[in-house]
Amino acid sequence: MADYPRENPDLIERLRDPSRCRKAFAEVIAEYTEPLYWQIRRMVQTHDDTNDLLQNTFMKAWQSLENFRGDAKLSTWLYKIAINEGIAFLERERKRCSLSLDDEQAHLADAIEADTNIDGDALAQKLRLAIASLPEKQRLVFNMKYYDDMKYEDMSEVLGTSVGALKASYHLAVKKIEQFVQNVD
Amino acid sequence: MDKNKKDILDEVRRRDGMTVPQGYFSDFAARMAESLPHTPYEDKDSTETVLRRRTTWQRMRPYVYMAAMFAGVWLMLKMFTSLTPSADTVPAIVAEAAADPAFAFDHIDRNVSHSDLLDDMMQQGIDFDSIDIDEFCADDYSSSTEQQ
After folding, report:
1. Which residues of B touch A180 (CB under 8 A)?
2. Which end of chain A, N or C, is surrounded by fewer C-beta atoms within 10 Å?
3. Confidence (pTM)
């Protein structure tokens, strides 16, 4: 999976300069398209929804660029926007289909089964289904830690949760995945 | 059970089995960059935004305030500590006050036996040289004779 782009002070400086921000933001898009895509895709599962949410993410970031003061990392800022987009989308879907939280997990499992943009890796598919069975927060934490290998401190900034709580969430998620795999086998 | 967990997480090794259409990422980045609308921010004067940038003092300010707050708390604790009588000063003060029979009669519960008080003071290590014991216990003696 795509790794985090490194923080680039020169890029941030150019983003804060109105005369150069458009070109700088195009660089941001080129650098962050892939990592943000996978982050959103693991939340919503389908390529089409991910594509729409990724566009919304960059559009929101572009329109609120003036408010980005460079205090937080660029990656943290973008991840926050992307994750909020993903959470809002899942919330809208829950309302649209009148789904409970449990139904939502089944809904995600259906989306995984119906996904055509896959490489046929059965084990990876099984893990996707196991992750879909987790509660929303644990799903997010597991994806960020396992797939993105994100530091707990960075995750804490993005999700606004303490490092201890994140570690506990990850531990619980691993336990539940273990349980899920055992039940399926 | 533990083996199962290790098996799947170790074997999958961060693969999620998901794919994207050919050339999706580069196409997306190009399309997205082209579709960015014009924003009022782009019309702003660069020098104006440079002026709006946070100065070193603005960046440091929260840390300075926090340091000042801790210094204040430290000073307050230090002040309270200096105002609280220490173990060395308490017996001297108590001994001085207890040496005055008028103080003792005014402030000490008369139902308490003075000999008990003296026992207690002795345990506290109070210097009895400065106390007139006979005068101090006279009240005990007179009240006991009155009762008889």
Report:
1. none
2. C
3. 0.67
